[in-house]
Each structure stands twice: as C-alpha cells, then as structure tokens.
Amino acid sequence: MEQLSHIWFFALKDLKIFFKDRIALLFSLLFPFMFIMLFFFLNIDGAAADPRLELHLVTQEAVGGISHQIIGAMETKDESLLQPGEAVVVWDKDYNEAVRAVEEGELKGFLAFPEDFTEGVLMGFGTRLEVVTDPEATYTRAALSGMAQSIASQVGAYQVVNSTIVGLLVGQEVNSPGDMVDIGQIMQQLYSRQGGDETGETFIEFETDKVGDIEAESPSNYVVPGYLVMFVFFAAALSAEMIVRERENHTLERLLASSVKRSSIIGGIYLGTAIRGLIQIALFLGVGMLALDMDFGRSPGAVILLSVLMVLMSSAFGIMLATLVKTQRSASALGVLVSLAIAPLGGCWWPLFITPRWMQFMAKVTPHGWATTGFNKLMVFGGDFSSAVPEMVALACFGLAFAVVAVLRFRSSASS
Amino acid sequence: MPEEFLVARNLHKSFNGNNAVNGVSFSIHKGEVFGLLGPNGAGKTTTIRMLTTVLEPDRGDIEIGGHSVRQDAEGVRALIGVCPQELALYVELSAMDNLVFFGRMVGLNGKEAKAQAMSHLDLMGLADRAKGKVDKFSGGMKRRVNLAIALMGHPQFLFLDESTVGVDPQSRNNIYETIEGLRDEGMTILYTTHYMDEADRLCDRVAIMDEGVIIAMDTPHALKSQIGNPNQVTLEDVFLKLTGRTLRD
C-alpha cells in the first residue's frame, strides 16, 4: 500500500512539474495539433476534388473463369443506387490498357485477377491478386487492398469447402485422387451455372462495408493516428531527459536514501509519463472526433485500447532510454533522433499501405509500424476488434521488452 | 561510555580498480556532531553514499541505530535524513511543494507533511516564501530548502554534505544555528565541509580523510593541541599539516 502511494505521489509530482512547464505543454499538446490541422487541411483539399471513389477491376482470365463471376457481381450497374460515400466499381476489360492508364496518370489504380485464378483456387495451388496503384492514390490503394482482402477470404473459404468435398469422396472410395481435376471442373461448371447471368446472383458474397468505411472526405482517419503515434512516443522519449535530470540533480539519490523503494521510483516515473501520454491521446482523439470528423470505425474500443497500449509502450521506452544515457543532453538528443527516425519508417507521416513492400517490412521492426497498421485496419479498412489483435499483442511485447531492460538497467544507472 | 549510534567497520569501495575508500572505520555517538573533513577526492562523498545506503560497500559493514546497511537497509533508511552537497530539489515547484513531496515519500500523511513543512520552512526563515517557486530563490535560500527537506520525517541521524557551499553569511549563520538547535534536541549529525572554522565551531569530533583513509580523528581541540597551542593554531593549520599543501584535482 505504501509502495503504491509512493508511486502515486511521484507521478503526481511529475505531473505538477509538467503542467507548470509552459514549453513542455506547448510541445506535447499544442504543437502536435498544429501539425495535425496543417496536414488535415492539406489532405481535405485534395479529397474534396474526388467526391466518389472509383475502383477498377481487371481480369486476365479467359471468359468463364471465376474472376468474371466475381467482377460481374461487383460491378456497379446503376450508380444512382449507390449510398453516399460508396465506391463505383468499374470493370476494365484490358489489363495492359489499365497498366498504361495508371502509368500515365489517367487511372489511380486497379485490382487485377491473374490468368490462372480459377485453376489456382479450385486446385488449391493458391493465387495472387494484384493491386496496381499510383503511389499517391492513398484512398484508392486502401480501398483496393481492402477489396482484395475480402475477395481472398471469401474465395479461400469456398476453396476449403471444395477440397473437403473432394477429400470426403476420395476417402469413401467414390473417387480416386486422380479424379480431383475432373471434380474441380464439374464444380466450376456448377458455380458458373449458379452464378450465371440468368439468375444475376453469384456464389461470391462481397461485403461492400469492408471498403465502404473508407471516407475520402475524412483524412483525419489516418492523419490523426499517425501523429498521435509519433507525438506520444516523442513526448515519452523526451521524458527520459526528466528522469536523467532526477539523477543529475541528485533527487534520485535523495529518494534512494529515504525509505522509498527503487521499484516505487521507477513505477512513479512510469505512471507520470503514462498519464501525460493518456492526456495527449484523450486530446488527440477527442479533437479528432469532434473537430475533424474522425471516424473510430467499427470498434472504437479497439482504437482506444491500441492508443493506450501505444502510451504504455512509449512510457517504457522513455524509461529505458533514460537508463541507457548519462546526461540530459544525450537523453534529449537520442530521444529526438530515435523518434524522428522511427516515425516515417513506422508510417506516421504517410500511410504504410502506400509504401513499397520493403518499407512495410521494415516498419515491422518498429512499434510505430504495428501501431499505425492497427489504426489503419480499424479506421481506414473498417476492420473489427479482432483484426487489430496482432498489433495490440506486438505493442504489448515491445512495451514489455523495454520495461524489462529499463528495470534491469535502472538499478545500476541510479547509483552510478 | 556514550552510546554508539553509527559504527563503520573497515569500509572499502573501488571504482574501475581505483580505491576510493580503503579501510575506513569510525563510530559516531548518539547526539554527536561528527565532522568528516578532507581535500577533494579524499573519499568523503563515497563514504557518505555508503553510509546512506546509496552505494554498497565492496567490503566492511555499517550499522546505524543497530541496523546493518547490508542486512537491513530499509531499517537504516527509516532513521536517516540526507542533505546532499548538490541542491537535490525540484526548482520548478514551490518550497512547500518540495517539502510536502519528500515528506509524503518518507511516509508522512498529508496533514503531517504540510505541518512539518511549514515548521521547517519557518525554522529556515522561509515561511513567507513557502509558496514561492524555488527556481526564483537565491543560492542561500535554495540551500536552506535543501536542508529543510532533509529534516522531513524527523530523522534520528542527519547527513549534511557541504551544506553551506556558496551561501551568504546570513544564510550560513542560519544553517549553523539550525544545526546547533538540532544537536541540542539530541539529533546525531555527520557533517562534511571544506570550511575548517565551521567544523571547529559545530563538530564535537572530526575525522580527517585523505586518499581513501582516515588519517586523524579526535576533537578539534585535541587535534589542534597536537601541533601547538590550541588557542593559537586553527583546525585549518592541522588540516594542511596532515594533508599537505599540494593542490588537488
């Protein structure tokens, strides 16, 4: 109990100092908003010129392939029936022409089905959908990626059903393994008949709400989370300077010589840093929602939990950084350097889904990359809580790793 | 025979192979003001950091109030107050906030912490500046706040490490009077200083350290008697005779 009160008093003291420091307040709370507002308005100007998103689909398969059924089902037949914000789906007939159009800037992007799509799906070889976009077409890329993900999961489910039926038939010796190709062709014909033009229906169910959550008129959905991640981490990294100052000013030594346990001191520092971070995210999300029309997506709880995990991880990083440096100057220099280096790599300055694959891979080594991917899933791609669980787990692991190093290093650095 | 409140036995501490403290032993009686003197780099601060449980000795042990720093550091910490050489306070906060914070950290409740803080600030002549931000205080005022913090929780043993460095005569006199008052109340004090007149005035006994060992330990009067007429020689004469006139780092 006494230890908990020590942690609380320490955190309270740090908050008092924080709120008395006008420059720290300006940097942590006001400065981020200047950035967000600036980039929000820059983005919204661009978005205003594109009232309805156009999504182009192309197939390289011969007529009769499953991809024709899918595109036929998704193609917008009557634009007047679309809901506000819903995308227009256009069927482009020529792959090479579509590529040329993207290269020359006539088209922002398209989703292409390969020529072996049906074979790959039915025979279980696997297949690969291709998203071709102009690097600057953020929304188009986001929408097409979401659409590709949806198609992949739906088709994948049918492929499993198909394989299971064939497996059962072979198991009961109704058919031999060599008949699988024949069965696949029969099922394809069956599907084609079922989803033919006569009925106007298709065996592929496509949920437009997967991509319907993309709101071109709300760039805050990725601008705010990106800057939230950057500035929360930045502020926590700079709190390392405060911790080093405790050591340099000998207040840490004074506390260590009193009946305060080391764990209470580190806990207090952590709590103080975390509370400052929570205040930051409350302001970020609050202003984002109320003033910038930010949409929390299908799972606001997941957005909040992801934000809190980001704060907890960043606070642990700040303490770890403090235990690795000797002086206030090196703490602030390293804090700035690390924060600025990781932010673009982790997708804080631009959405990760528009970056090259190698950059997306690199982002995985940063907590920022996981955090922004999680926010994008929830707030751009319309994912639910479960879709962001891997990112939450990754952030928790980063936080735990930083905390372990911090605790191990704190003892020696406190008395050096 | 006076009761020994602090006993240090054969303390050793080295950093990167350099012996900072090399076999220091001494004891301090209850209610005594004990001076630990020595030139820069003599090992005084390292000794104090071991006595205050911040550093663990490589060898040897320390007992304060019957508690061993090795076996019962918590018990030792509950008895001591530390006023470090540096201004170990938060300049962004008011004097009152500083004292209350450290008071809460030594286990006082809110009411007790506020009452003690006000009483100690009054003792240091800072009652009217209690709400003032420490950053705006003069060097002497900051030193007095630094000492007031060490008194929070009414410790039985007080460590004062060069508490009067860089303060004006008025503040220094206030600190002297405070220390004398604390001694009269029965507090045991370990005092380090570079000002020999201070040690002569305040300390019942002094130990002079050099190169990690104690080279002399006695009352100021007895030490002065060793080199001449105690009424004519000063403790500084004794100090220079024992530690030499060579400049130190």
What does this structure look like?
The complex is a heterodimer of chains A (416) and B (249). Chain A has 416 residues and is mostly helical. Chain A has helices spanning 2-20, 22-48, 66-74, 95-103, 117-123, 138-171, 180-194, 209-212, 220-248, 251-256, 262-291, 300-324, 328-345, 357-363, 367-379, 389-414, and strands spanning 54-59, 88-92, 109-113, 130-133. Chain A has two domains: 2-45 and 216-414; 52-212, abc type-2 transporter like fold (3-Layer(aba) Sandwich). Chain A is elongated and about 80 Å long. The model of chain B has no long low-confidence stretch (mean pLDDT 91). Chain B is globular. In chain B, helix 3 packs across helix 4 (110-123), helix 4 packs across helix 5 (139-150) and helix 5 packs parallel to helix 6. Chain B has a six-stranded mixed sheet with strand order 6-7-8-3-9-10, with helices on both faces. A four-stranded antiparallel sheet of chain B has the order 2-1-4-5. The interface between A and B is medium-sized, with 22 and 29 residues.
Overall geometry of chain A: elongated
Number of helices, counting only DSSP H or I runs of 4 residues or more of chain B:
9
**Pair of chains with the largest interface and how many residues each contributes:** A-B, 22 and 29 residues
Tell me what portion of residues of chain A adopts beta-strand conformation: under 5%
Properties at a glance:
heterodimer, A: 416 residues, mainly alpha, abc type-2 transporter like fold, 2 domains, 4-stranded mixed sheet, 16 helices, 67% helix, B: 249 residues, alpha/beta, Rossmann fold, 6-stranded mixed sheet, 4-stranded antiparallel sheet, globular
Write the layout of secondary structure elements.
The complex is a heterodimer of chains A (416) and B (249).
Chain A: H1 2-20, H2 22-48, E1 54-59, H3 66-74, E2 88-92, H4 95-103, E3 109-113, H5 117-123, E4 130-133, H6 138-171, H7 180-194, H8 209-212, H9 220-248, H10 251-256, H11 262-291, H12 300-324, H13 328-345, H14 357-363, H15 367-379, H16 389-414
Parallel strand pairs in A: 1-2, 1-3
Antiparallel strand pairs in A: 3-4
Chain B: E1 4-15, E2 18-29, E3 33-37, H1 44-51, E4 59-64, E5 67-68, H2 73-77, E6 80-83, H3 95-105, H4 110-123, H5 139-150, E7 157-161, H6 169-184, E8 188-192, H7 196-202, E9 205-210, E10 213-218, H8 220-227, H9 235-243
Parallel strand pairs in B: 3-8, 3-9, 6-7, 7-8
Antiparallel strand pairs in B: 1-2, 1-4, 4-5, 9-10
